[in-house]
């Protein structure tokens, strides 16, 4: 008797499950074959495509406008450096792309009836957590942006950052790479850059001090100096102005120091000084000036 009731229970259960499954199938078929559902899907798909292509068009128009603004800015008498204009244009173009893509994603999610308030709140909390957890990274990025935007230095410039002096190899939003004259590459986080000395902005001055004995005639030595540096100026493209023979600089225990200065191109004072020393040595030997 118990076994019969159990079989009856199983039969009833299977019958209910079969009925439920059949109803589910009927509802699914009805939903799929409902023209209103497909119309709604089509409208949503069209809206998504419209939003996507509208975002692409906005990005292209913004980049074109930005490029046009930079070209017009370059034509202005107070124009930016071309390298700086390209760098700033690329940065602003990336910012525009990220912002527009973020807005497009939010608008697409809204088409699926997803509430944007929790998404925006979660993004805000996530950004706040990243800001607190990576303060040094945020500082590096902000400082790097202002280094590029303000054109504090550029690739190829000779700079001194703290105790590191050399040629700038790369400027990024996070780090700056400086190569010293002995070959070492120093990688400096932008957030630690507090003071920069740029040796490539203005012309440099080469200072050449030549010593002669007290027995030599000052006027004769100065005349030889003037003739020698004048000939060097004609042959050296790194000299911006004619060298100036200033005269006697100091008087030591056994020698008199004569000074020559010359304005030259940025970071060429070393080569100019060496060339002048060599030419002056040859001239003094020829004139028997000790």
From TrEMBL:
Q: What does the sequence similarity comment in the record state about its family? A: Belongs to the MscS (TC 1.A.23) family.
Q: Which cell locations does it reside in?
A: Cell membrane
Protein topology in the membrane: Multi-pass membrane protein
Q: Where is the Mechanosensitive ion channel transmembrane helices 2/3 domain?
A: 94-135
Protein's organism? Paenibacillus rigui
Keyword DNA repair listed? The answer is no
Summarizing the function annotation, the protein's role is: May play a role in resistance to osmotic downshock.
Task: Give this protein's Gene Ontology molecular function annotations.
Answer: mechanosensitive monoatomic ion channel activity
- Its main localization is membrane
Q: Which Pfam families match?
A: MS_channel_1st, MS_channel_2nd
Task: Return the PANTHER family for the record.
Answer: MODERATE CONDUCTANCE MECHANOSENSITIVE CHANNEL YBIO (PTHR30460:SF0)
According to the lineage, what is the superkingdom? Bacteria
Q: Which residues form the Mechanosensitive ion channel MscS domain?
A: 137-200
* Entry GO terms, CC: plasma membrane
Which protein are we looking at?
Mechanosensitive ion channel protein MscS
InterPro entries linked: LSM_dom_sf, MS_channel_1st, MscS_beta-dom_sf, MscS_channel_2nd, MscS_channel_C_sf, MscS_channel_TM-2, YbiO_bact
Q: Which UniProt keywords apply?
A: Cell membrane, Membrane, Transmembrane, Transmembrane helix
Kindly list the residue ranges recorded as spanning the membrane: 37-59, 91-112, 118-138
Is Cell membrane tagged as a keyword? yes
